[in-house]
Design brief:
alpha+beta, four-stranded antiparallel β-sheet, 5 helices, 11 strands
């Protein structure tokens, strides 16, 4: 996957870039098999410290997104996906940074008739980084339709400034869908949404400050996706902001002000060693 100058310019203007093919079909199958393993509690490479090794309970309910953070730490195939150098190179190109590290991954199953995920900025959950120059890639694991509730992007919203988290994230509703973004949208601006309707293996890259969410899944099918999240070279650790982060062990060995990169959140482009 090559990112052109025109695509970088579009990303910087709009805060997102949709790509129809990010990972090939055989990788999609491996990722879905890995997701199923993690959901049933089977971990084929558990790298977690012994003190925190316990069954992973997904966030969510039968009506919301079933959401698992940092499953790469317990599964070899998900680790391979998250640390892929080709996708990491694309991330670095879009962020105009010499290198990137993978700081998070998310497994995202939205059930049939599942409720919305309210609009939010990913950086509002990554305040441990001293820089906002961070990037998400949401990858569809099934062919998307609008009715399935794929991620939607508010075009240009990365320029609106920092917002607080929504009161509720994955148990969203039409009434509260806009709540976080409405607090910072500039006067005269309007929401201009782009829905990520892509074939499986395609998806969207977007900036850490870009507002995004997803509407309800009105179909009879589960909407499956994975997201990867990178930090640019200038992102350093602010330990005072780790108090409400779910997996603080990921920053083991990092001192205040050091770059966000270690054995759990490795630099993936360019690959070291």
């Amino acid at each position: 996957m090559q990112i052109s100058d025109a695509q970088v310019e579009q990303f910087e203007r709009d805060g997102y870039l949709i790509v129809d093919r990010i990972v090939p079909g055989d990788h999609v199958e491996r990722v879905m098999q890995a997701m199923d393993r993690v959901y049933r509690g089977s971990y084929n490479r558990d790298m977690r410290p012994a003190a925190v090794r316990k069954p992973i309970t997904p966030f969510g309910t039968t009506r919301s997104v079933r959401w698992v953070l940092n499953a790469r730490i317990v599964d070899a195939d998900l680790w391979e996906m998250a640390t892929d150098e080709v996708v990491g190179r694309a991330a670095a190109r879009l962020l105009r940074t010499p290198s990137v590290s993978i700081v998070e991954d998310q497994l995202l199953d939205k059930p049939n008739q599942g409720v919305p995920v309210n609009l939010h900025q990913d950086y509002s959950y990554w305040r441990f980084s001293t820089s906002v120059n961070m990037l998400t890639c949401w990858i569809a694991l099934s062919d998307m339709t609008t009715e399935m509730g794929p991620v939607e992007i508010a075009r240009g919203s990365h320029r609106w400034g920092f917002a607080a988290r929504p009161r509720e994230l994955i148990h969203g509703s039409e009434d509260e869908y806009f709540s976080a973004a409405q607090n910072v949208i500039p006067p005269g601006e309007q929401f201009d949404f782009v829905t990520t309707v892509v074939p499986r293996g395609g998806g969207v890259f977007f900036h850490g400050l870009t507002f995004h969410g997803s509407r309800g899944n009105s179909t009879d099918r589960v909407r499956r996706a994975i997201s990867l999240h990178w930090a640019s070279q200038e992102c350093c650790l602010d330990r005072s902001k780790l108090l409400d982060y779910d997996h603080p062990y990921l920053f083991t060995g990092l001192k205040q002000g050091e770059r966000l990169a270690n054995k759990y959140i490795p630099q993936v482009y360019p690959r070291l060693g």
